[in-house]
Design a protein that fits this description.
The chain is α+β, with helices and mostly antiparallel strands. It has two helices and ten strands, in the order H-H-E-E-E-E-E-E-E-E-E-E. Strands 5-1-8-9-10 form a five-stranded mixed beta sheet. Strands 2, 3, 4, 6 and 7 form a five-stranded antiparallel beta sheet that branches. 15% of the residues are buried. InterPro entries: Self-incomp_S1. Belongs to the plant self-incompatibility (S1) protein family. Pfam families: Self-incomp_S1.
Length: 150
Amino acid sequence: MLINRKLLVVVVCACLFLQSAHANPFVIVGAFSYVLSSIVKVIDHSQKSTVIVENHGRHHAHLWCASKDDRIGDKDGVWVQPGQSLGWSFHKKKNTQFWCTMDWYGRRYGWDVFVANWGGQHGRWVIRDDGIYNGDNGPKRMELESNIPV
């Protein structure tokens, strides 16, 4: 297992500090608390999550995806052709949420594609002619209707 440099620096500094504290219990507890919180922050920020929206349908999907802090693509959205996908990675925080809005031949659909507290694998979405699915075999999130026959 590779050790993150920040984590290594925090542990070394804590050990040196504890060595100079001469076993004062309050100092040891405070230093231990600081080291533990630093380790949790380093581990939490090193976890990357990914969202992928795949178009398995017969029509182009016009997508606008965003979070509170980030926009995927530009203000005009992203066109995802049949057989293609749109994907992005990000550092997950406890309140991370991404959503997408899609124009699908005259109708607009919107759904959450990633919410941090969902847990499990939920970042892969498949657009088919009849609906939007959570993964290949996952539940259908919503029905799609098209003004153009398939």
